[in-house]
Amino acid sequence: MLIKKPRLGELPASEITEYGVYLNRRQFLNSAAIAATASMLPLSFARGDSTPEPTYKELVKSAYSTEESLTTFESVTTYNNFYEFGTDKASPALMATEFPDKAKPWRVTIDGECDKPGEYDYDDLIKPFSLEERIYRLRCVEGWSMVIPWVGFPLADLIKKAQPNSRAKFVEFTTLNDPEQMPGLNRNVLDWPYVEGLRIDEAMNPLTLISVGLYGNELLGQNGAPIRLVVPWKYGFKSIKSIVRIRFVENMPRSAWMKAGPNEYGFYSNVNPDVDHPRWSQGRERRIGEFLKRKTEMFNGYGEQVAQMYTGMDLRKYF
Ligand code: MTE
């Protein structure tokens, strides 16, 4: 049987939840769940309003942080895109509660065109780097955005340690591919595993972050625990979650979204209000928690740091 793979914009409306609908449904789910299991739940969960106390102490504050108001912890951790746990916004938080405990110790392979490849346990991988708090905007291709206080370190620091050679023109990232832990992998929505890529200068740009936490705590499963990418001037799908492999390559990687819809999802995917998605405008966005839409900024407002990497490129062609 030939199963047509739905693209991000082709998924049934029920799967790409509008935020208002999502909130109503979530309120219903919350009250039903609380009524059913209130006696078993810790109070903080039952209240549903708790931003946890930070467990990462003394994080270096980054000069790259935006000063805009933060999206609530509740929204950041319950309105997610993580198709390995379902295409619905609510599914990742509901389905990833045990993740990635079973996958521990989490291993990350660094290989390809570099002089210092290696396979690392998560703890050993991040040990050499000092963690910062970076408050970044994340603009999803579907038209919503959030402001999130990430915890992480520049990808450039990790790349320098791996010592890419002169053939390393791109970096390819791969997500864990374990259907036992990630029920969404049993559905044919993308050509799994989820793969993303950056040009080497984009990967080395000081804005590009390896994130291991948010709101002062370790990442939750739904946000891409234990280690993910955050590329704030690109559409959210470039910020690949739950990474198990970082590979230096000579040729441009083909991401999972490029395979699913080459005319709709390009390699660069820089936030660009002047280049619409073939089926919807990219000119405006809804900041989660706000009612009115706002204008989307070129490079998501990070042009000063990144525009020079695209000088002379036709951004309609290289979308
Ligand atoms: N990474 C993997 N492995 N699988 C995914 O489905 N979704 C992407 C990106 N990273 C995705 C992923 C999309 S479309 C977005 S908008 C962001 O993760 C969402 O990150 P958040 O849920 O932490 O806000």
Automatic annotation (TrEMBL):
Domain Oxidoreductase molybdopterin-binding, chain residue ranges per copy: 100-257
PROSITE patterns given for it? TAT (PS51318)
Q: Which UniProt keywords apply?
A: Metal-binding, Molybdenum, Oxidoreductase, Signal
Q: What is this protein called?
A: Oxidoreductase molybdopterin-binding domain-containing protein
Q: Which Pfam family is one of this chain's hits? A: Oxidored_molyb
By its UniProt entry, which HAMAP family does this protein fall under? MsrP
Task: List the Gene Ontology MF annotations in alphabetical order.
Answer: metal ion binding; molybdopterin cofactor binding; oxidoreductase activity, acting on a sulfur group of donors
PANTHER family per the record?
A: PROTEIN-METHIONINE-SULFOXIDE REDUCTASE, PROTEIN-METHIONINE-SULFOXIDE REDUCTASE CATALYTIC SUBUNIT MSRP
Q: Which organism is it from?
A: marine sediment metagenome
Alphabetically, which GO biological process terms does the record hold? protein repair
